Amino acid sequence: MLVLLPPSEGKANSGGGAPLELGSLSLPGLTAAREAVLGELVELCSGDEEKAREVLGLSEGLRGEVAKNAGLRTAGARPAGEIYTGVLYDALGLATLDAPARRRAADSLLVFSGLWGAVRVTDRIPSYRCSMGVKLPGLGALAGHWRAPMAEVLPEAAGAGLVLDLRSSAYAAAWRPKGEVAGRTATVRVLHAPTRKVVSHFNKATKGRIVRSLLTAGAVPEGPAELVAALRDLGYAVEAEAPGKAGKAWALDVLVEEVH
Q1: Half-sphere exposure of residue 117, counting CA atoms within 13 Å on the CB side?
Q2: Is the dihedral of CA 55, 84, 36, 159 positive or negative?
Q3: pTM of this structure
Q4: Which tens digit of pLDDT belongs to each residue from 112-150?
Q5: Is the CB of residue 219 less than 8 Å from the CB of residue 230?
Q6: Using only C-alpha atoms, what is the Rg of the chain?
Q7: Which alpha helices (H) appear in the chain, and where do they start and end?
Q8: Are 70 and 45 in contact (CB under 8 A)?
Q9: Cα–Cα distances in Å, from 201 out to 91, 197, 253?
């Protein structure tokens, strides 16, 4: 099972560990594309601060993120699972998983990123600020930059099992499963059961809980149909229909009674 996650806007501090080793990150086929984004981002943030804030879409209160990006090559690095914070990651609670569940997380979770493309939660990275929606002056839109290298690398990373895609639309634009990989991919919406409306904050929390539940239970669904059964066994209210055409992803709706 491969679980595709969005990053979080908020990130923990890098700490004082050894700096990033770009070549040590998982999915080495992305190294050249990572170096291109990293070089462009560091150069941008080492120059005109106001221009960098505008390009990155940073408010006045986030001005300090520019200097952080400028120092990415020498900043301390920590496992990505410790860097990413926020609602989904709080609900996932990687640090409180038992050892077998942590091993499963290391093997199955893949976090998408405007800067790194995609990383495992065990990959050591510094704290940064660069969303997938950014257009860097020399590279253009990051989703477009990542599309070709992702198409080369991700099908192999997906293996032959289930792909559980929990990314937001901005990050999904960098790689969309195709062909037989798409046929074993499941996307998830979280709906408020009484109104059938998509919820935002609780959407992230519920997705984090779903991943935690699967990891804790040791569930390894072979495909989308088995995922639906596993989630129902874990107490989730799930609605799903198999796609009408081959090579299309399954769309799962997880229903929640309370929005909090």
Answers
A1: 27
A2: negative
A3: 0.95
A4: 999 999 999 999 999 999 999 999 999 999 999 999 999
A5: yes
A6: 18
A7: 31-45, 49-56, 64-70, 80-83, 87-92, 99-108, 142-158, 169-172, 179-183, 201-217, 224-233
A8: yes
A9: 11, 13, 16
